[in-house]
Amino acid sequence: MVGNCSGSEYMKLVGLAAFRNDLKKLSDDKQTKVVGALNLTGFDIQRVATKFAPVNKKVSKGGSILKNSNYVNPATKTNPIIEVGNSVKYAPYMEFGTGTKVKIPKGYEDVANKYRGRGIRKVNIKANPPYLIPSIELNTPKLIARLKKIFSK
């Protein structure tokens, strides 16, 4: 289960309660392997997001703040959620843009729509090439493969 885009913006996690219940029914060994697969995927997402994160090359110091602020809160047996995000408050604006320039990747509407604005300010910042969502999309199939391997034994 993957969550978080900016430290406080969680994507909807469909089926989390059922996943927690199913995890409890597994042997201790399988639970450990599932949590390990989740955490490995979380760190893979962080690594790729860090690689993709935009850098302000005009800034001599601190131009890579966004790149260096990606984090992972690992999953546990009792809380099988990987929290991958960025601790910089402007991270979602870099990912999605603002105002009329918001780009909403399919399936991420609940998170991205928050940055569209409500007409309070006329700030329209074009989104950079996304970095976190492509990392999630790239690594989700790897998580599925890891879980299939665990359950095929």
Query: What low-confidence regions span 5 or more consecutive residues with pLDDT below 50?
Result: 1-9
* Major pleated sheet: 3 strands, mixed
End-to-end C-alpha gap: 22 Å
Count the E strands.
3
* DSSP helix fraction: 40-55%
Strand order of the largest sheet: 1-3-2
| % residues in beta strands | 5-15%
By oligomeric state, this entry counts as single chain
**Apparent shape:** elongated
Average pLDDT confidence is 80
Classification by helices and strands: mainly alpha
The whole-angstrom Rg is 17 Å
How many independent structural domains?
1
Total number of helical segments?
5
The SSE order reads EHHEEHHH
Which properties best describe this structure?
153 residues; mainly alpha; 3-stranded mixed beta sheet; 5 helices; disordered N terminus
Describe this structure in words.
There is one protein chain. This protein has 153 residues and is mostly helical. It has one domain (2-151). It contains five helices and three strands. The protein has helices spanning 16-25, 28-52, 91-96, 109-112, 132-151, and strands spanning 2-3, 70-73, 82-86. It has a three-stranded mixed β-sheet with strand order 1-3-2, covered by helices on one side. A hairpin with an 8-residue loop joins β2 (70-73) and β3 (82-86). α2 packs antiparallel against α5. The longest helix has 25 residues, at 28-52. The radius of gyration is 17 Å and the shape is elongated. It starts with a strand and ends with a helix.
Strands, helices and their partners?
Blueprint: E1 2-3, H1 16-25, H2 28-52, E2 70-73, E3 82-86, H3 91-96, H4 109-112, H5 132-151
Parallel strand pairs: 1-3
Antiparallel strand pairs: 2-3
Helix pairs in contact: 2-5
